[in-house]
Amino acid sequence: MFTRLRSTLDRLLGRPIERRLTAYQREVRGIDGQEEALARASDGELRKASGRLRERAREGEPLESLRVETFALVREAARRTLKQRAYEVQLIAGLALHDGRIAEMQTGEGKTLAAVPAAALEALLGRGVHILTFNDYLARRDAAWMGPVFERLGLSVGCIQAGLDLETRQKAYAADITYGTAKEIGFDFLRDHLARRPEHLALRGHHSAIVDEADSLLIDEARVPLVIAASAEPARLGPEDAHALVSRLDPGRDFDHDAHARNAYFTEQGFDRLERRLGIQKIHEDEHLETLSALSYALQARELVHRDVDYIVRDGRIELIDEFTGRVVRDRRWPDGLQAAVEAKEGLELQPQGEILGSITLQHFFAQYTKLAGMTATAVPAVDELKEFYDVTVVVIPPNVPSERTDEPDRVFATRKAKQRALVEEIRREHHTGRPILVGTGTVRESEDLAEQLRRIGLAPEVLNAKNDEAEAAIIAAAGDLDAVTIATNMAGRGTDIRLGGEDEGRKAAVLARGGLLVIGTNRHESRRIDDQLRGRAGRQGDPGTSRFFVSLEDPLLELYGVRSLIPVDAIEADELGEIHDPRVFPEIERTQRIIQNENFVIRKQLWKYSHLVEQQRRQVQNWRQRLLAGDERPTLLAARSPERSSQLTRRFGSALVESVERDLTLAEIDRHWKNHLAEVAHVREGVHLISMGGRTPHDEFHAQIGKAFRRMHQSTDDAIVATFEKAEVTEDGIDLEAHGLRGPSSTWTYLVTDSPLGGWKERLMRGIFDKLRQASGWMG
Amino acid sequence: MMESVVNLFRIQELRKKILVTIGLLLVYRLGFFIPLPGVDVKIFEELNQQLAGGALGNLLTLGSALTGGALGQAMVFSLGVMPYISASIIFSLLVKVIPALEKLSKEGASGQKKINRYTRYATVPICVFQSLLVILGVFKGQLQNRIIDPNILASPVAHFFWVLMVIMAFTAGTLFIMWIGEQITEHGVGNGVSLIIMAGIIARVPASLFDFVSNSSDERNQVITTGFTLALLFVVVVFVVVYITKGQRRIPIQQAKLQRGRRVYGGQRHYLPLKVNQAGVMPIIFASALMVVPGVIGAVPFLKFVGEWFRYGSFWYTVAEIAMILFFSFFWTSLMFQPSEMANNLKEYGSFIPGIRPGKRTAEYLEKVMIRITLAGGTFLALIAVLPQFITTGLFRGTSLPQQVVFFLGGTSILITVSVALDLVDKLNSHLLMRNYDGFMGSTSGSMSRRSRRR
Question: Which ipTM did the prediction report?
Fold first, then answer.
């Protein structure tokens, strides 16, 4: 009844959410109907049945009409292999996935198994299905766990991990179903676009993908660009020297930062001192630009990024912490100059700096798939954004057994100190009952500080943060046991399954009697979904559980957005322990969170507009390139632009060789010019916010400039191909590209550029846009 | 050029946006044919013709010309978007003055949204106020001419409700126009409010031209010479206005962030574009509004000479107007453009003007440049504004040129039209660029065909 009402309401509001599952339930009854007959069939017969389905699919029978049979087969195969019968809700989720939707499933409801029938059905077409997991470990685990199920039906399974060689990757992608992270597969995509020979390609197209933790990947991480780079020349003033100079400056006197501490800059005095030290007259002249760059990066590294908050140092390397998941992200780095400056600050060996050869944001990478589906526990809050960016709808899958979790209202404090005191007291009190407690903190440093305070009152908490993520499995396994106190960063949010009563669930009854897992959040996050993920650790599969958030008005996020100004003054009154009880406070905290979410949405929309055109250009260039590479298209430029030399060489070596020379040359020049184009795009983007001062929309100006640059790039690519062809020496072995500086990069590496290079172009841009808005509302400016 | 225009309609999404824009503008124009109940439109219009030329008449014409309203007609949409624009102006000034609002405006999207909402709220009382002005000042002043239905005036109750209804009609009309403007901004192309103003201006052109040609009491020959001169003048003015509107001083900006591979193409620098005419038409509007004051003072019997001195088109009127426009140019620019704030922004982002220290020295430099170009911009504005006076009292003294034609030529309207049109072209170009590539995507054709399409 309630569901009906909600879904009617959703439909009235035009929200792309589906709660009524009657159609799916009917299909599940069809699947149930075949269960008995299949249970009697032998393994060989199952395999044969699957083979027949495959034939029918390839003969063009629509997959929809094979759904029921395939799902029934997979369920039977899973029952035999895993000794686990898929629940109705898992099948419904699978059906929704096959419809290209996002299935919202609560934690512990068996998302891994739910994806199997949908993937198997799609795999009947033989075009490859990617299941994108949250991390490498889960890819490995799921491939090993679900692999036998697929194999029982004659379907092959591959698994992509970081650091595999090309041959292994090709094999994994050739399989019917491939498990891997979006990041690794995206890197392969970028590498493929630099391949000079068809046999060096790893992927075989993007047909269908099922994304785990869909909201995190499709939204939070969506704007993170994947990057492939090769070495470039080193800087003149080394980052080490710059660090040495900057570390001797005094804060406040020589440099300062803005109110939100997102930007740091030198003061007049600072510049005077630097000029004296360097023996330079005027540091703002063009000739000293490189020096000045190194110095300002050194300053940013000193003031704006903090060890154990933004990054940790491990094994002599900087490892970045993801702001949403709290995990260390492998292969993630800041934009070049900052990365080097932080390495210098920590006295580490400098990693090579790169010249970007290719890049794609995760969002655009996902858009390459013809069919996209996903699952997560927190899809509904993101439903509008999912609809807008990916045109997918959300299906809410009810839990198999309703959750017994109680979400208690926030406890709000006036000061951070009061909150901290109450937190420690609360943990002490609850721990007394023996109930397991999971505390979710904001940063690595906060988790360590809290652990220290608890140790002082005689508790022995386990700490799980980016620093010891290798111990994750063991810590999580123990986190649901009696007397357990686990302090974690956001990383305890996604992809962890806390079972009550210890690993063997031996003391489950005792834990249940004490109310199940208690989840305590020490602050509200940027988005409601991250809070919900943390809450979702409790109350798994119908278990009881409690969640409770502690908030102070001094929390950085709330302070930044000025929550105090929203709350009526007389409501802020706190009791002697600093706690605020006035009920008027709660909606304002929620409101602040909504404002932040909304603002992020606007930012993502804007950024999308900026990346869209470049992505179109990338597709156009790369499609052309890949067709040339695959031999689907013959290059015809030289015959037209350099007919004499073409025919002369054709007479000498034959047309096949000349064609392959032109192909090699074209691929090399495309790569070189695309690289330069990317650099130009980055350059234009850096400065385009200034345009708003002249009353033009930065976005329009950006498009105009990038469009012009792209046309220029086409022209100069063609010209360069012709020029090199005219002067290059051609032998029976073809053309010596190396002699013309056109050899492919000897080594490349891939990484993600982190999303928050503080005060980067995005923030400037947003400010520019707001300026423009302000002008627009002031009529004509 | 033609190809681009065709392309505009070839792209489905863009075609939809353009059609939405045109459709909404039509709706807006249609609203001008809904007369106010109880007002005799015919009589009112005739009266208005007589009014033209007087101080109030001039103001009404200018006001209507600038805002896409039609105070000369008693229609539901008569107030135009003016009240909304007034509210916007008031708020953009308040934001600089009231600290709480300034803080809000810096809060980003949500803060800006809030200010926009306040602006809309503020539009309502302004509407009410202006409606009252129109009722008391225009309708009631002409009671003896029977423009209001006598039956209404007969009963106090009916009278009261009639006033209430007119206020509501005017307010609703303006709010509806505002809504249309927002819909255009949201679902169409370009800034809706600006387009509405432009549409209002352009819509008046045919009628006043017709008026000029058919109703002129002058000789045929003279009409032709006048028309020809005006057309020539028009072309020149448009040319100059486009030139000045696009005119900007580009101050080079350098980022203290050098990245690998950037020097490959080199040469291109970021710049800060400072518009020559930073203040837009604002100074003219302010100045015109204030120029009514001498006329009002002149109404007092023993101060009649003030009104005489500052008669429209007189020497002192012109001098005062020029001075005021210059003053407001500087005033508005200094409100909108704060060199120290600008320098601070640059500093915080690690940007600088090559060779100039960030901070105080940058601010001084920006201020110096700004003063110079504002002087040029303000002078230009003043010339544009006094052009109509020059035309009527100098060039074509003694001919019967309709005020509206003169005002359109007077540059102020052209100034608005040009800047809105330029912005629109920018937007359309940007759309074209963005979509054009979609067209390429599906093609399996090779590099040659790709090349040929580019040309």
Answer: 0.70
